[in-house]
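Shipment paperwork, digital attachment
Item: protein structure file
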Amino acid sequence: MSEQKKNGSALFILFLVVMIDMIGFGIIIPFLTYFIEDLATTEGIIEFGFWIGLMLVSYSAAQFLFSPFWGSLSDRIGRRPVIMAGLLGNTVFFTVFGLSSSLMMALVARFFAGAFNANIAVAKAYIGDISDHSNLAKRMGLIGASFGLGFTIGPFLGGEFSSPAERWDIFANTIFETNPYLLPCVIASGLSIASFAVAMKKLPESHPVEHRTVSSSLNPISQISTMLGDLKRVSKMPSLGNMVMISIMFTYGFTIMHAVLVLFTESGLGFNEAENGRVFAMIGLNGLLIQGFLIGRLTKKFGSIKLMKIGTIICGLGLTLIPHVSTEYVWLAMMGVVLLISTGNGLFQPSFAATLAQNTRHAGQEMGMVMGAQESASAFARILGPLTGGLVWDYTVAKNGLLSNASAFHLCGFMMIIALFLQFNTPIVNPARSEHVEE
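Attachment content:
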């Protein structure tokens, strides 16, 4: 097989892997609020916002802790086995989450799902291994498109297949009646094991033995120390450190929304699980169109730095406008807000990933180490974001004036402003001349 065909096959498999990862993250979003309300009510808990944030945090906390481990392990043994281990973990813990009968069981299941999904950094490192400056942005865009497709399919499945016994007689008096959110999780498990089978047969290794390193420890405690050391090390690098901060601020602002959007649509707009799933599916679909079909052309015309800035502005505007959606034309208004959010995020993510990879290569750093550190930093932001959103919602939902149910969304916009200002200090790497050019 030619090198070009081999790389094309690998990119397709990576597309599937990241898509499955995002299905696992997104599938719970439409029904998580209702699921937590059911479990919490049986346990006498009434503050739902905190628990919704905590459930999302458990997933991201595991990614924060395990991303350096998977990144270093892939530098040591290769990318392929690490990616496949993640798919197996997904298969198990998707289903366990759907079977959860208590808040603690659900929390543990989501933690381990996040631990195995922490290999997204490895998928990005794989692309860095097989790409050069002429196709890096486009290929990062394909991975971004897989994010979009996964974030379209996941919430759609989660919404449409929740509580199936109430909609289809075939599920009456079955385990899916006593566990109303199990079916979408089982579907996700099936997709994950199918992706594993394809990867087993078709995914080649991208990181040859002669390029592997064994200097880093795989002990979990040492890994936490190494993770903090890598973050500290990267943060001291002028270009890479600034980019990590951009990622933190953008991700923090974006994930505050994850905890509170369904709380707002449920209480303010009367949406059910399926309607919430369609909202998130629209976000994912538009992101798919941008990252899959437009990002290459837009990058050639504007450059990654400018697209990052434009994306941050558009996404921040959409997040801020969520609580001001008109109830008279609710779906038309919601579609407009969703297009802003997804367009901004769709422009930002691949542009950021391509710029980070270029700067990493220019600085002569290990791709797995830097990508692992950046993913850990992003996961840390995903810890703070939902937890902040849930706490702010619980504190402000019954208030009026400056503090209200809109406060969490306004906080999202403020974080985007910080991310935007940081981007003015981001250098552009000129691959042809191998030097930094300030924009």
